[in-house]
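User: I'm preparing a small set of examples for a lab meeting where we compare how different chains pack in three dimensions. I only have the primary sequence for this one, and I'd like the structure in token form so I can line it up with the others. Please keep the answer compact; I'll paste it straight into my notes.
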Amino acid sequence: MSDVTTVSAEEIASLRKLMKRYNSRYIGERLEAEREVADMGDHFSEVLVAFLRQETLKHNLRKSIGKGILFAGLSAILLLTLYILTHDKYVWFAGFGGFGGLAGVSGLFAPSQTYMQAVNLLAEREDKRLVGYLAEAVANRMGGYPNPLRIAMARVLIRVLPQLEVSDGAYLSQPQRTALYSRLKSGERNKETELILAIIEGLTRIEDVKAMPHLSLLIKKPVSTQSELAVRAQAQLAFETLHACYERLEMPQTLLRASMLTVSGDELLRPAMDVRKEEENIQLLRASSSERE
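Assistant: Understood. Below is the structure token output for the 293-residue chain.
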């Protein structure tokens, strides 16, 4: 997938307007929006990822502001309550009226409707070019993505990873592959079985031989449930497959290194000449011994 930085600000703004029509209560506007998405083709995936990244930054900023307001409000209410309690025991409950003013802050923590609509669109996509971005986002639990978005990303990964071919390896950079390795290491085998199995299959299908050490660690983990047993069996099969790939890929390099070794004709003849000299010396020794007798 091409870098989402190639997506212009105008395209993101157009997608924002399109999302509003997707949420329209008028069926005509909704159908028009769906036709526009279809007309954009594969490029829609790139614009959608750029839009979600931008919206995630905004969402995280709103959450930070909300936390600041909440902390400041609670601190003020606490100080006010302490003051009232120490000065007038009959109006102590007045301090709790401030909690009502903080109720509006909760809106800063909730993703916008447009954001959630984009998440739903992402969950419907099966674009292989999304796999790198999704791998990076899903593997990083602390990446700041709201839980609904991370779940939607995981669903797409579970569908797309088993569809990859060797040529699709270009869609996964090494840092993104490393993100998948870390998921194999830290993923909960009993609660994230489908995702872990999909990651193993995806890495195997693109013949990522660098995943073998991570698969080996997964194989060595103790098992006590059917899910853990299934993960181990899949990891074992993947390790054997990738090991065969490694040997197949390494063989031409071995032959190439051997062919690059230049040996002169004299060096090839020298062992044969040494053998002949040894034979002549042995014959001379035998002849001298027979003469003595």
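A couple of notes for your slides: Residues 166-259 form one domain. The two ends are 90 Å apart (CA to CA).

User: Perfect, thanks.
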